[in-house]
Amino acid sequence: MDSGGTTRPGGRAARVREAVRQATIAELGEKGFDGLTVEGVAARAGVHKTTVYRRWGGVEGLAADALDLAGGEPWPVPDTGSIQGDLRALTRLVVAGFADPELGPVSTAFIAAAMRNAPTARALRAFFAGRHEQSAVLVTRAVERGELPAGTDPAEVVRIAVAPLYYRLFVSGEPVDGAIADRAADAALAAARAGILRASRAPDDPA
């Protein structure tokens, strides 16, 4: 997928890419992935549809590129002074994001797209990897404060904390609220404190 040419940053290609990205996000928020069309994105972005087809190929490329760029945006990592407070704030942030009337439909559309096409699935994996890496500082700080065992896998703690929320949102359809978010955070914290979420070692590494 050609994501906008090789002209200098800030040039026309970069402006077109940003306009198309914003148009894609807006269209996803309003219409979902099923309603996303090249024509709709092109009209909203103010570019010709042949430009979109040439650079992004189709709706799959549009969704993947918008998600790829979204992954570079800063993530408001909590810093409450304790690992329990940080994890609870993180899980509540996830719940609030999906409940947001503007952000929620976009996030849901990205996940729906990832379930149906490989380019968006790859972009979604990269997006989550980036979010987990940014959030890992919560666990690193906790280890340094002595709240968690040395060797705790930071990204795995984050995954375990947010996984029940995504299960409820996209698999079981059960309700998700602040209490559920806190429970998920506390369960991940209990596992981390018990030493279950230590980073994996190679077979020949010393224990």
TrEMBL record:
Species of origin reads Streptosporangium sandarakinum
Q: Which residues bind DNA?
A: 37-56
Q: Which PANTHER family match?
A: HTH-TYPE TRANSCRIPTIONAL REGULATOR RUTR (PTHR30055), TETR-FAMILY TRANSCRIPTIONAL REGULATOR (PTHR30055:SF148)
Molecular function per GO: DNA-binding transcription factor activity; transcription cis-regulatory region binding
Q: What name does the UniProt record give this protein?
A: AcrR family transcriptional regulator
Give the UniProt keywords, A-Z. Answer: DNA-binding, Transcription, Transcription regulation
Q: Which Pfam families match?
A: TetR_C_11, TetR_N
Domain HTH tetR-type as annotated: residue spans: 14-74
